[in-house]
């Protein structure tokens, strides 16, 4: 089987092209020994061609895990051909990776993607001149129009080995000498040895190292520059020549639409209000309008009537014993149905987020948030993991690896899960729909509350001796705006929804069975009402802890505890427990309305949004922190923040609604003042190394 690898910069359209070439014939996993996602697929038009999608990267210098994975793949298991996906609107920047890939000598094709956007800028690339300069085939593609993709595959399969480009004769002489000393015949390895790459230098003997250092030292004197700058400058000199030769301006004075939009979207004062409005609109559409219509039908009709009636009639016809019927209807259907009913809202939410991300807007949000984060001592790099965490906290935590400063990285790990992930969406939808059906601010408030707590927590932590220090620099590319790729956006939304359904069918299913059993039997295993069950006894003991937060009721307590296993189980647990009172899972809203007040329900929402994340996320925190103490610090900090915020909201909210100022109101006010003190106090001037 022929293996073709796709490589390109982030935002070059590589993933969209991969999806179009492979369709649904994909396998997703992890690269051996690391958590970087591995994606491969069979070419739709030839089952003998496997396409490997490598992580998006700007260079092959192994500073990040993604770059290390791509480099190892090309060195240890070189594919039959490479397809380098290049953003035509950023040709000069993109060609740096191209030149590095050519150094491997693997047959290669350059795919100029987004060529239609380049035409909109009034520019044109001469394909023949660029192909002649590079010595490889160059083909224009457009993922939006599905143009040129099959031609790229055909060209890759018949492309010959790539011949290395010639640099300055002094550098060429040095590389030739390095090849003689080390025995490395691969151009990429020769250059990496010249640069002082530790991964390759460790393979050399002491005598070889001395000779290499002498060669490099002589070259540095001849070219009056250091070893790394010599390579970078030589590459960019070639790139500048290629761009000047092949790119021409077809129209003058043409307005750049991206720049015009960015003048508003990234404006110093307008950027943040625009972002707030867009996110409000996203949650309003997904939680309270379009998504809600489908969710209501699933809850009220499918899981509320059709499915329970169908299963009940089937079990009656088979004369199934009553306890099994109760388990299936009030345990499985009530619990799983209470969760799966929110799938339409999840799909719509991530469909809209996918549109924002694929169009290039979310990159601007990171730029806008960097201004805010930097003002409070945080790095804009911290926003990227937070953005990823809106899909899954585990992925968001792993994304902190891109942050160089250890202090900033650990702060980001500690606060990233404040962002509401897809697993928290059911509790957001339940509270906003059941208690605030006409208040469009409730669902978006969960998003902005999480982001606010990230900023405030970052301020507090940054002022401590443990985390004080300089902030990491934040540099990122702002891609050209373009219409979202329908296939990419739909696949993104389907993947998120399917992941949610998959969890409902595995761990959440098991949890619902356990919840049903412990809520139906007492310690002597006698069948009892839920109020006298094992679960009720445990819940009542722990409920006293949550009483100051307004939901010191055993069912809410149990649901909160099960949320530590998986946040989706919060609503699933309520579906099982309240089915004893309401009879059907579709009446869950009415049941919780009769048990809690809107204020206590919102307090419940706040606590579950901010408290310690699920077991999988806690495990990832431990892996990234590499220390039990730091993991406990992170989980303890998150729980303390959640309890404090929920306590303040409920107690002060009760005071403003009833005008009754009691001891708990005073304590809540004191907690608020202490929080404000830690936010506005002067930071520590002395910092210590983290251990």
From TrEMBL:
Mg(2+) 1 binds at residue 22. It is a multi-pass membrane protein. One of its GO terms (molecular function) is GTP binding. GO terms for cellular component: plasma membrane. GTP binds at residues 8-15, 33-37, 53-56, 113-116. The chain crosses the membrane at residues 269-286, 331-356, 376-399, 441-461, 500-518, 530-551, 558-579, 599-622, 634-657, 663-680. Coiled coil: none annotated. It is found in: Cell inner membrane; Cell membrane. The keyword Transcription does not apply. Residues 1-162 form the FeoB-type G domain. Probable transporter of a GTP-driven Fe(2+) uptake system. Belongs to the TRAFAC class TrmE-Era-EngA-EngB-Septin-like GTPase superfamily. FeoB GTPase (TC 9.A.8) family. This is Ferrous iron transport protein B. The gene is feoB.
């Amino acid at each position: 089987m022929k293996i073709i690898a796709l490589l390109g910069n982030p935002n070059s359209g590589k993933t969209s092209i991969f999806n179009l070439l492979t369709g649904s014939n994909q396998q997703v996993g992890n690269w051996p020994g690391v958590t970087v996602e591995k994606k491969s697929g069979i070419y739709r038009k030839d089952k003998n061609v496997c396409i490997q999608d490598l992580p998006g990267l700007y260079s092959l210098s192994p500073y990040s895990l993604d770059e290390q994975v791509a480099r190892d793949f090309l060195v240890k298991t070189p594919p039959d051909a490479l397809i380098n996906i290049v953003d035509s609107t950023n040709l000069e920047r993109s060609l740096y990776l191209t030149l590095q890939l050519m150094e491997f000598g693997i047959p290669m094709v350059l795919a100029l993607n987004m060529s239609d956007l380049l035409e909109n800028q009034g520019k044109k690339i001469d394909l023949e001149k660029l192909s002649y300069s590079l010595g490889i085939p160059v083909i224009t593609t457009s993922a939006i129009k599905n143009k040129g993709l099959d031609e790229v595959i055909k060209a890759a399969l018949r492309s010959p080995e790539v011949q290395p480009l010639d640099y300055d004769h002094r550098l060429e002489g040095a590389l030739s000498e390095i090849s003689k000393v080390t025995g490395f015949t691969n151009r990429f390895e020769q250059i990496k040895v010249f640069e002082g790459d530790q991964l390759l230098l460790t393979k050399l003997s002491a005598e070889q190292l001395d000779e290499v250092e002498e060669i490099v030292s002589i070259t540095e004197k001849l070219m009056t520059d250091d070893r790394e700058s010599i390579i970078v400058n030589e590459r960019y000199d070639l790139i500048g020549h290629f761009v000047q030769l092949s790119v021409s301006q077809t129209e003058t004075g043409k307005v750049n639409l991206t720049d015009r939009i960015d003048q508003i979207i990234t404006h110093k004062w307008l950027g943040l209000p625009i972002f707030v409005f867009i996110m409000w609109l996203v949650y309003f559409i997904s939680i309270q309008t379009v998504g809600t219509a489908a969710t209501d039908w699933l809850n009220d009709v499918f899981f509320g009537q059709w499915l329970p009636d169908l299963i009940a009639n089937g079990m009656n016809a088979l004369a199934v014993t009553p306890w099994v019927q109760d388990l299936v209807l009030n345990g499985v259907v009530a619990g799983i149905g209470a969760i799966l009913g929110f799938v339409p809202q999840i799909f719509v939410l991530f469909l809209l987020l996918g549109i924002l991300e694929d169009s290039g807007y979310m990159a601007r949000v990171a730029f806008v948030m960097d201004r805010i984060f930097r003002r409070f001592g945080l790095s804009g790099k911290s926003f990227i993991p937070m953005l990823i965490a809106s899909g899954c906290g585990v992925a968001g935590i792993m994304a902190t690896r891109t942050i160089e400063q250890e202090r900033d990285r650990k702060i980001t790990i500690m606060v990233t899960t404040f962002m509401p992930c897809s697993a928290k969406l059911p509790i957001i939808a339940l509270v906003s729909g059941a208690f605030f059906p006409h208040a469009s601010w409730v669902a978006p408030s969960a998003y902005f509350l999480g982001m606010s707590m990230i900023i405030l927590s970052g301020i507090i932590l940054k002022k401590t001796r443990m985390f004080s220090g300089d902030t990491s620099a934040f540099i990122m590319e702002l891609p050209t705006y373009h219409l979202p790729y329908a296939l990419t956006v739909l696949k993104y939304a389907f993947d998120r929804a399917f992941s949610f359904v998959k969890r409902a069918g595995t761990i959440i299913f098991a949890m619902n069975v356990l919840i049903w059993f412990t809520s139906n039997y007492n310690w002597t295993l006698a069948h009892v009402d839920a109020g006298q069950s094992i679960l009720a006894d445990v819940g009542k003991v722990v409920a006293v802890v949550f009483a100051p937060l307004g939901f010191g009721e055993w069912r809410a307590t149990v649901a909160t505890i099960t949320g530590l296993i998986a946040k989706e189980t919060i609503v699933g647990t309520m579906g099982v427990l309240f089915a004893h009172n309401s009879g059907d899972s579709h009446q869950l809203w009415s049941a919780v309305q009769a048990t809690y007040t809107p204020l206590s329900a919102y307090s419940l929402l706040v606590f579950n949004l901010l408290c310690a994340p699920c077991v999988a996320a806690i495990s990832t925190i431990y892996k990234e922190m590499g220390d039990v103490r730091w993991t406990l610090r992170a989980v303890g900090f998150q729980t303390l923040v959640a309890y404090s915020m929920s306590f303040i909201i409920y107690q002060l909210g009760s005071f403003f609604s009833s005008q009754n100022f009691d001891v708990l109101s005073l304590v809540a006010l004191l907690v608020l003042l202490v929080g404000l003190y830690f936010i506005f106090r002067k930071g520590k001037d002395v910092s210590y190394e983290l251990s």
